[in-house]
Design brief:
single chain; binds guanosine-5'-diphosphate; Rossmann fold; seven-stranded mixed sheet; alpha/beta; 197 residues
Amino acid sequence: MNIKTVKYIKSCVSLKDCPNTNFPEFAFIGRSNVGKSSLINALVDQKIAHTSSTPGKTQTLNFYLINEKWYLVDLPGYGYAKTSQNTRKQLIKIINEYLINRKQLYIAFILIDSTIPPQKIDLDFINNCGQKQIPLAIVMTKIDKERKLIIEKNKNAFIDELSKSWEILPPIFMTSSTKKIGIEELLKYINNILQTS
Ligand code: GDP
């Protein structure tokens, strides 16, 4: 898919604040510092999301209209230790509200850092989404940052963990925003879904 136009629409603090439109939505979420902003920027090939020196700063749901056809939704990061417990609770509430109730949500892309072994917080988040039947895909980030062997080991460990509760695994994409690996595949995947919907 060629990205022809990218329009920032709005930032929302609750579900009822979200745009009242029927465009298909593809959301991106992960722990702070997982590489979400970098991935979003690589996908649309321009700087729309701010890569942060202050992780955890996206605290709104940010809507971008792509090619006048679909929304890319940048969701707040979960599990950032330095935000207060209240803020974290509030964020989880907004995220869940959106993921569970938003009818226009086609796929939630859950980002996972491929350079580290499986983390409980990520597995819990994914398993929760699975239980609530939220359509999701996994995007492993930063695959250029470690040796291939380590990335492969982390990926396999992650699959092993997921296999404990998933009969059919969700799609898993291996990406590097820095080296532009897997970006085209992700766009193709979105495009296929748009064309068959
Ligand atoms: P966010 O907090 O999830 O939005 O993460 P950022 O996109 O701001 O990235 C967090 C850090 O990881 C930054 O220092 C990025 O430069 C780095 N990073 C993100 N993606 C990649 C990648 O594909 N490869 C490498 N080597 N570093 C990355």
